[in-house]
Design brief:
The complex is a heterodimer of chains A (about 150) and B (about 110). Chain A is built from four helices and seven strands. Chain A is of the alpha+beta class. Chain A has a single domain, classed as START domain (Alpha-D-Glucose-1,6-Bisphosphate, Chain A, domain 4, 2-Layer Sandwich). In chain A, strands 1-7-6-5-4-3-2 form a seven-stranded antiparallel β-sheet. In chain A, strand 3 and strand 4 form a beta hairpin. Chain A is globular. The mean pLDDT of chain A is about 95. Chain B has about 110 residues and is mainly α. In chain B, a hairpin with a 2-residue loop joins strand 1 and strand 2. Chain B has two domains: about 70 residues, Winged helix-like DNA-binding domain superfamily/Winged helix DNA-binding domain (Arc Repressor Mutant, subunit A), CATH 1.10.10.10; about 35 residues. Helices cover about 65% and strands about 10% of the residues of chain B. The longest helix of chain B is centred in the last third of the chain and has 29 residues. The model of chain B has no long low-confidence stretch (mean pLDDT about 85). Chain B is built from five helices and two strands. In chain B, strands 1-2 form a two-stranded antiparallel ribbon. The chains are: A alpha+beta (about 150), B mainly alpha (about 110). Chains A and B meet through strand 1 and helix 4 of A and strand 2 and helix 5 of B.
């Protein structure tokens, strides 16, 4: 397969609406997204970017699917690293499926390129961000506070 | 998620070998995973089912193929639960020591 893909599947004890809000509200995101926030027009086709606390743009792209509270897909390219930026566009899909008293969140981040370094890098970031998110929604506290 | 299912899944060398393979190359079909392994296709299927039930592997349909992906979530979540406990205690212990050395009242 000539793609690079990172997948993270977690079950969070919350409601789809709460989780959707957590994924699309900048102030909330800052708590678990290791200090970064999103600036976006939250609609299909809307511009999207992830911004560091000092205002630098970390990643930028466009919202490709927006179906609250079940599907958010973002076409996304890194901006802060020359090397990652040169690898081009990736697709990040977040799917929310209601379960009995939890939501199954599946995050897939993929690039049409073999052994993409960017996908390797997000593979390091996503587990910490999503584990923070689960902890925040379930206990009110993150595992790793923003620096 | 079920911790027992995760530890049970990891307790088998063949299953760990499958996880290693996916770590080296993510998104493989059953046939690809079976290649060069000293395990029958049936055995690999049984192991994959157990790994999927433990949420350590996520299987997805891509076109006509079913691809298997490594899911780091269960291990990440167990690590956070345990690491969190150790770090907190260590930080508190260091803070206590600092206070004692600096001669703060009440220590």
């Amino acid at each position: 397969m000539a793609d690079s893909t990172f997948i993270y599947v977690t079950y969070i004890r919350t409601t789809p609406d709460e989780l959707w809000r957590a994924l699309t509200t900048p102030q909330f995101m800052a708590q678990y997204w290791l200090g970064a926030t999103a600036e976006a027009e939250w609609r299909k086709g809307g511009p999207w970017k992830l911004v560091f606390p000092d205002g630098r743009v970390a990643d930028a792209g466009e919202i490709v699917d927006f179906e609250p509270p079940r599907l958010l897909a973002i076409k996304w390219r890194n901006e802060w690293s020359e090397e990652f930026k040169a690898e081009g566009w990736s697709m990040c899909t977040m799917e929310l499926e209601p379960m009995d008293d939890a939501v199954k969140l599946t995050v897939s981040h993929t690039m049409e390129r073999e052994n993409a370094k960017f996908i390797g890098a997000v593979g390091g970031g996503w587990p910490r961000i999503l584990s923070n998110l689960k902890s925040l929604l379930e206990t009110g506290k993150v595992v790793l506070p923003p620096k | 998620m079920n911790d027992d299912a995760v530890f049970k899944a990891l307790a088998d060398a063949s299953r760990r070998q499958l996880l290693d393979r996916l770590h080296d190359r993510n998104g493989q079909t059953l046939s690809e995973l079976c290649e060069g392994l000293d395990m029958s296709r049936q055995a690999v299927t049984k192991h994959l089912t157990l790994l999927e039930e433990a949420n350590l592997v996520a299987a997805q349909k891509h076109g006509r193929e079913k691809l298997h992906f490594l899911n780091p979530a269960p291990i990440q979540e167990i690590a956070d639960r345990w690491m969190g406990k150790f770090d907190r205690r260590r930080i508190e212990a260091l803070a206590d020591l600092k206070r004692a050395l600096e001669g703060e009242p009440g220590t």
